[in-house]
């Protein structure tokens, strides 16, 4: 089972388009995850027992919702959200439609990563900020973020890599991207060349993401 490079050249426009669709899906869902998952993760942390905004009801409700969504396999979540996807984008197929379910999966995933990152902070630092009269917003902005930013960057990296895998699965239901290309050409047409190429593209892409994430994390890590 080798690679027919002439065949790869012929399919290059399709490969380029598919990779662009994958980037499009990941960009949208990552942006949504950052906008909603970051504050959600902070809320999960600061409302916990013993913290400065302790609220067991809020913590329990948010924790239940996050755990519920995370417990649903992505392929099932993708199908379950088709009515919502139609409502938002008007079409259950294509990269924009797949971005809806990708975002729904990414938000709780990233929120838990943010919460875990914040739990790594020395409680003494938070207590010291409270002792000098810092407001909750000041603690979040001037203590939590600076202390956890390196871990959060690593969490962003992990989220992006997970989104790459999820976006490939979205191709099963016509979501577009590299996964859709692999299904249409590699699986349905028994095209081993395109299967190998798509796997190589995904591996290289993930390695680049991991390298960039590790590099940025080390740069901003003040410890």
Verbal overview:
The protein has 223 residues and is an all-alpha fold. It has one domain: MetI-like (MetI-like fold, Orthogonal Bundle), CATH 1.10.3720.10. Helix content is 81%, strand content 0%. It contains 10 helices and no strands. It has helices at residues 5-10, 12-46, 56-70, 74-80, 82-89, 95-119, 123-131, 136-170, 177-187, 192-220. The longest helix has 35 residues, at 12-46.
Secondary structure: number of strands = 0
Helix/strand/pairing category = mainly alpha
Helix content: over 70%
CATH homologous superfamily grouping: MetI-like
Overall average pLDDT? 87
Give the topology string: H per helix, E per strand.
Answer: HHHHHHHHHH
What's the CATH topology name? MetI-like fold
Q: Uncertain spans, ≥5 residues at pLDDT below 50?
A: none
Largest sheet: none
Give me the Rg, rounded.
Answer: 20 Å
Tell me the domain tally.
1
Global shape: elongated
Name of the level-1 CATH class: Mainly Alpha
The name of the CATH architecture is Orthogonal Bundle
Supply the number of helical segments.
10
Main attributes?
transport, 0% strand, 223 residues, MetI-like fold, mainly alpha, elongated
Write a compact overview of the structure shown.
By secondary structure, the chain is mainly α. It has helices at 5-10, 12-46, 56-70, 74-80, 82-89, 95-119, 123-131, 136-170, 177-187, 192-220. One of its GO terms (biological process) is D-methionine transmembrane transport.
């Amino acid at each position: 089972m080798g690679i027919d490079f002439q065949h790869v050249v012929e399919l290059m426009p399709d490969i380029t388009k598919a990779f662009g669709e994958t980037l499009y899906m990941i960009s949208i869902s990552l942006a949504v995850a950052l906008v909603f998952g970051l504050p959600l993760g902070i809320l999960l942390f600061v409302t916990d027992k013993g913290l400065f905004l302790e609220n067991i009801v809020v913590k329990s409700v948010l924790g239940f919702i996050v755990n519920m969504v995370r417990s649903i396999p992505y392929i099932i979540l993708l199908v379950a959200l088709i009515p919502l996807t139609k409502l938002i984008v008007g079409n259950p197929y294509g990269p924009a439609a797949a971005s809806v379910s990708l975002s729904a999966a990414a938000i709780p995933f990233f929120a838990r990563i943010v919460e875990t990152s914040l739990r790594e902070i020395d409680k003494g630092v938070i207590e010291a900020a409270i002792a000098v009269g810092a407001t909750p917003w000041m603690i979040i902005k001037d203590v939590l973020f600076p202390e956890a930013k390196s871990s959060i960057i690593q969490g962003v990296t992990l989220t992006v890599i997970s989104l790459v895998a999820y976006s490939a699965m979205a191709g099963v239901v016509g979501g577009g991207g590299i996964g859709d290309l692999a299904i249409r050409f590699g699986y349905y047409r028994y095209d081993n060349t395109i299967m190998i190429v798509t796997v190589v593209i995904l591996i290289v892409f993930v390695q680049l993401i991991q390298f960039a994430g590790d590099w940025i994390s080390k740069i901003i890590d003040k410890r």
